[in-house]
Amino acid sequence: ISDSMWVAPGTPSLCYALRGIVYAYITVAGPAVDIHSGVHGGVVANPHVRLSHLLATIAKPDGSVAIDGFYDQVRPLSEAEREQFAQVPLDVAAYRERLGVESLLVEDKVEVLARRWAEPTFEVHGITGGYTGPGAKTIVPAFAEAKVSMRLVPDQEPEVLIAALVDHVARNCPEATIQLDSAAPPFVAETTGPHYQAARNAMRIGFDADPLLIREGGSIPAALLLKEHLDAPVVLIPICAADDNPHSPNEKFEATHFEGGIRTFIAYLHELASTIRV
């Protein structure tokens, strides 16, 4: 599977772990239709205000999550992995500049990678409802909806986190409802067998450099499904550059990575064929 990225420019990478995900919609209902805020404001609760207060009880300014039990199942990062993270050639200042932000929630390189790869998150992706067109329109909206997700890490279970989120919302904003969109557990690959060794050798041929072994903060639900239902090893071979901007404007894919990926997959199949006999 190649739906992941290198960790830094010019740094071939092999991925061995992915975060899981829970995606949901949180909705706070208001009046039957949008109503005039000058006539009715101050009497009818504003769904956007209620929703904002609710979200603020979940996500703390430091990036941590205030849902009870949210971190109970998190597998601690080992010292060996911290040392491995320390070897990653990530320039934090350049990374910050590429993102177009003045500061990060953490600035230490190891902590940046730990936050991206090995710690769970709660994110708000968009809020809809009310008037969002050009110009002014003074209304109390009929509803407010937030698209949210939680990224999960080993050994967190989606069912446990969904129940915790539902309980938190019920206690802090009883009028809110939750609709689950999708859920998938985290994934960890077995890297000591012949498949990842073949991938290492293939990356050297495809990109003329030894690949780093990294985690990935994104989620690929199919990885675990393929592993469990086919009873087959899953190898994560990223060929996207660190600045390809997935899910963002101007998403791209470098021609040199396309060509290197072709060489890598050809080499991988040859390496595997010479190692494993059916």
Q: Average pLDDT, to the nearest integer?
A: 95
The beta-strand count equals 9
Radius of gyration: 22 Å
Straight-line N-to-C gap: 22 Å
Q: Rough shape?
A: elongated
Indicate the structural class.
alpha+beta
- H/E topology pattern: EEEHHHHHEEEHEEHEHH
Low-confidence stretches: none
How many separate helices?
9
Largest sheet: 4 strands, antiparallel
Order of the strands making up the biggest sheet: 4-6-2-7
Amount of beta strand: 15-25%
Helix share, percent: 25-40%
Which oligomerization state do the chains in this entry correspond to? single chain
Give a description of the structure.
There is one protein chain. By secondary structure, the chain is an alpha+beta fold. The protein is built from nine helices and nine strands. The protein has helices at about 35-40, 45-60, 80-85, 90-100, 110-115, 160-170, 195-205, 220-230, 255-275; strands at about 15-20, 20-30, 35, 120-130, 140, 145-150, 175-185, 185-190, 210-215. The longest helix has 21 residues, at about 255-275.
Question: What is the gist of this entry?
Answer:
Helices cover 36% and strands 19% of the residues.
Keywords:
278 residues; alpha+beta; four-stranded antiparallel sheet; three-stranded mixed sheet; 9 helices; 36% helix
Q: Mind sketching the topology for me?
A:
Layout: E1 13-18, E2 20-29, E3 35-36, H1 37-40, H2 47-58, H3 79-86, H4 92-99, H5 109-117, E4 121-128, E5 139-140, E6 143-152, H6 158-172, E7 176-184, E8 187-188, H7 194-207, E9 212-216, H8 221-230, H9 255-275
Parallel strand pairs: 1-9
Antiparallel strand pairs: 1-8, 2-6, 2-7, 3-5, 4-6
